[in-house]
Amino acid sequence: MGNEKELLNVSKATIGRLPAYHRYLQEKLAAGEKTVSSTAIAEDLHLNAVQVRKDLSAIAREAGKPKLGFAVADLIADIDRFLGYDNLNDAVLVGAGGLGSALAGYGGFKNYGLNIVAAFDADPARAGTEIGGIKVFPADELARLVRRLNVLIGIIAVPKEAAQGVADELIRGGVRAIWNFAPVHLNVPENIAVKNEDMAASLAILSKRLAEILNSEK
Amino acid sequence: MGNEKELLNVSKATIGRLPAYHRYLQEKLAAGEKTVSSTAIAEDLHLNAVQVRKDLSAIAREAGKPKLGFAVADLIADIDRFLGYDNLNDAVLVGAGGLGSALAGYGGFKNYGLNIVAAFDADPARAGTEIGGIKVFPADELARLVRRLNVLIGIIAVPKEAAQGVADELIRGGVRAIWNFAPVHLNVPENIAVKNEDMAASLAILSKRLAEILNSEK
DNA sequence: ATTTTATCGATAAAAAATTATCGAATAGGC
DNA sequence: GCCTATTCGATAATTTTTTATCGATAAAAT
Question: What is the pLDDT of residue B169?
């Protein structure tokens, strides 16, 4: 049912901005606005209007209308569809410590198409408990359960020393995508997707910008 | 004491990769290796060797040596200096819930030059407690304390509804950089640096890559 | 001492991403 | 019904980022 257009020509940069548009559009929807222009989005989100237009046209089914802009509800649906927010992907969470609990406790992932079905922890004391309504299993059941549940996404929230081992186990269980919160580079086969949530990198960028700003003032 | 070279010509993309190099180099240092080549780094981190060389030469004081590569210890020191890992910046954390506690509990930020000196929470029950060794203050003292402590960095880990208000208060207190973990776009003056930790965006990129991989297999 | 080889830095080429420009379309006011 | 102002989409120009190429250099091997 051909929507081949979609899969092509959508850059990583664009994909990275789509969630921000999505949030913005939902605000507008809640405020009762029917349409929104790329100009307005760009201004509010501090982006370039052409860029917004390009991003949106890459995933929108309906073209924008001159003088009015885009239909808010349609755009939301388009992004939902494109990013898969409308059908849940199962995931497992490894590490039920501080960060793991925080991630489990944040219910919002469901809105982003992510459904955490089980958690794991190496500490036997944590097995059998629950975090954010998700059952915690002992780490040695990881690969087996992942395989049984047919889960394709693993979230790593363990100390850095343990991260590579966890990744190996996840992959052994059949996981194909890893969201890594541990501050280490993971070594994985080519056909496994890894996204590092590198807080140090974010922080580096922030503090460089801060330095620039302070610098430009004196 | 001229190192003007540094501040120029170091792209955001490069800055974003430096922390990964830093971690890698520390591993090598721990393993007792004195030198490392861009080729080796590139291979292990799955990057392009020219890119690595360019990134490193942008911040390195000593040039690499043919046939040997770069001096591990020197490079680490260079990155430390460039990213400010060697002198701590004070920050406050707003939101002592799940995510806030997790961030406070992660002691590692000190290694990245960030020193969290106080936390705040709107819930009076949390005021007076500690998270990860950091005192929690009532939210209404935010601006005053930030100003008194002369803190320039604020970390927002509150529910999205509260985030804009917190940002405003932080700025009122004199904060100049905001690390925002709430899934909203913050509206701030131009001379304030904001870095959004947009997990939805990361997730979007990860799941698109996953989809690609699965797609390429069938 | 000479040759080989791995690596560097510099420069050039290619690719990707952002931004500018402009004619066409149309909603809303006159 | 006709202007006017706003927005769109398409195309082009620009900028940024990544990757390729190549001569020079120095460690290691012969």
Answer: 98
